[in-house]
Design a protein that fits this description.
Layout: H1 12-25, H2 29-41, H3 50-69
């Protein structure tokens, strides 16, 4: 599937909130936006959401293990 380019303006607060997870995950802003849109729209967008879904699953596993340990 061909990729299309869009341009949007983001308020300062939105950019700050976008940059933090981008830096933490090592994803660039474009990839993070594609994954977020994929999750928000509930559709697959060229692999969008895959990485976030895996991270969410890992977080759930850690939470379950902590619960078993009594934390």
């Amino acid at each position: 599937m061909a990729k299309q380019q869009i341009t949007t303006r983001v308020p300062d607060e939105g950019l700050i909130r976008l940059n933090a997870p981008a830096e933490q995950t090592g994803m660039n802003q474009s990839r993070l936006v594609v994954e977020a849109l994929s999750l928000y729209l509930g559709v697959e967008v060229e692999g969008g959401g895959d990485r976030l879904t895996k991270v969410e699953q890992q977080v759930k596993q850690v939470q379950q293990k902590l619960k078993l340990l009594g934390n």
